[in-house]
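Suppose you are handed a protein chain with no further information: no name, no annotation, nothing but its sequence. What can you learn? This example shows the usual starting point.
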Amino acid sequence: MKNRIKNAFAKAKKESRGAFVAYLTMGYPTLEASEAAADALAEGGADVLELGVPFSDPFADGGVIRSAAYRALENGVALKDVIALAKRLRTRHPQTGIVLFSYYNPVFSMGLERFADAAADAGIDAVLSVDLPYEEREELLAVLRPRDIGYVPLIAPNTPIERVGDSADGVGDSFLYVVTVKGTTGARTELPSDLSARLEAIRAVSPIPVAAGFGISTRAQADVVSRHADGYIVGSALVRRLGEAGELKGEMLP
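A reasonable first move is to predict its three-dimensional structure. Written in structure tokens, the prediction is:
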């Protein structure tokens, strides 16, 4: 692996801050606008970009990202378009980590070998499949590993601590995506009171960096999470802002 994700977290740690992982639904409000927003995020300090592939049944997502996915699909954006966009981003941002964020159906439908070849050619560092169970992920990892592509496991609020180590095993220089709240994605005014303790417990057993997401929408929340994790993930707040303004610029979080 090219270690871009590993290097991003190491750089953030050296600078005594949490790594900023930024999610966007690609194709929303248009493919061109989402690409420009990804550029702005990379230039504005995002350490890792998560490129969301629009899907017709995004059951893990809240209203903001769900609506964005539907609009992107109406715009005709598919997995192949997001991979092509990732390749363009890679040429402009050679050091930024890029994660392809997708439900499993588009990946499986493309054909695993074909998908992995295209992802490797685009310079994608890792793949996150929202709905691929731990017990069934090996078929995807089997095509990613030979191509030096990592995999980002999701750790749910009810995932037992003893399972965290298993989830992190064999995924390369990636990171754990710890879901902060039960339910779907979406900005929250408050995060769970027990989140800090859970993040510390997960961090203690994880051999790879830990980043927390779902619900983070302000700088204050990001700072709190960063005291107990290696990074924070912002999605709905960015997607909403992009939809309202048509572009992203300046401060990414209030």
